[in-house]
Specification:
This protein is of the alpha/beta class. The chain contains 8 helices and 4 strands. It has a single domain, classed as Rossmann fold, CATH 3.40.50. The radius of gyration is 16 Å and the shape is globular. It has a 4-stranded parallel sheet with strand order 3-2-1-4, with helices on both faces. It binds iron/sulfur cluster. Iron/sulfur cluster binds next to helix 4 and helix 7.
C-alpha cells in the first residue's frame, strides 16, 4: 500500500481528505506544521483538537510544534496582500521535504479542501515543491466533499475556527467597517462556515 504524507492545517479540514485518501488505499500519515497561526492560544487549540481527532481515527501524526510568527511577519512585511503565497510555500516545502526524507510515496495537503483558499496557487506551489524535493505530489480536489466534511465536524462537536490563521485573516473576519473605515472583506467573513480553515 502506498504511503502518503498529508499536511494538515486543522482537524475539521482533515475529515474529508482523510476518508478519500484511505478509500483510495493510501496509508495516511498526518503532518501538522503551521507555525504562523496567531495568536498562540489559537495555535494550541487547533493542534489539541487535531491530536484528539487523530487518536479517534488511529491516524499517525507527526507534529512540529515550532511557533514562529516573527519569521512570518518578516517575510510578508510590505507584501501583505501576497502573504498566502509565502504561507503556503513554507508549509508545502516542509511537507515535501519530510515526505522525501521519510520515504513516503507522495505528499498532499488539507489546504486543497477549503473552498476559499487559493486553490490553483496551492497546486502550483505543491508541484514546485514536488520538483524541488523529488517527491510526487498527489492532487485531489477535496473541495468536492466540503459539505460532507463540515457536517461531520459539526456532528462531532469539533471546534471550528472562524478565521484562516494569521492576524490579517482574523482582522478581515472581525474588524467592523465602522472601526477604521476599512471595508469588511465579505470573502473572508464567516470563513470557517464557508471552508476557509
Ligand atoms: S490568510 Fe491564511 S493562508 Fe493566507 S497568510 Fe493568512 S493564514 Fe496563511
Amino acid at each position: 500500500m502506498a504511503r502518503i504524507l498529508l499536511h494538515i492545517c486543522c482537524a475539521p479540514c482533515t475529515i474529508y481528505p482523510l476518508s478519500i485518501l484511505r478509500h483510495g488505499e493510501f496509508a495516511v500519515h498526518g503532518f501538522f506544521y503551521n507555525p504562523h497561526i496567531q495568536p498562540y492560544t489559537e495555535f494550541r487549540k487547533r493542534l489539541d483538537v487535531l491530536i484528539s481527532y487523530a487518536a479517534t481515527e488511529s491516524l499517525p501524526l507527526i507534529v512540529r510544534k515550532d511557533y514562529d510568527p516573527e519569521t512570518f511577519f518578516r517575510q510578508v512585511a510590505f507584501r501583505e496582500t501576497n502573504r498566502c503565497m509565502y504561507c503556503y510555500s513554507l508549509r508545502l516545502n516542509a511537507a515535501a521535504s519530510l515526505a522525501k526524507k521519510s520515504r513516503f510515496d507522495a505528499f498532499t495537503t488539507t489546504l486543497l479542501y477549503s473552498k476559499l483558499q487559493k486553490h490553483e496557487l496551492i497546486v502550483s506551489l505543491a508541484e514546485e515543491a514536488s520538483r524541488r524535493f523529488g517527491i510526487p505530489f498527489h492532487y485531489s480536489d477535496f473541495r468536492e466533499g466540503w459539505r460532507e466534511g463540515q457536517e461531520a465536524a459539526k456532528s462531532l462537536g469539533m471546534y471550528r475556527q472562524q478565521y484562516c490563521g494569521c492576524v490579517y485573516s482574523e482582522m478581515e473576519r472581525y474588524c467592523p467597517k465602522s472601526f477604521d473605515g476599512r471595508e469588511e472583506d465579505s470573502d473572508t467573513a464567516g470563513a470557517c462556515e464557508r471552508g476557509l480553515g
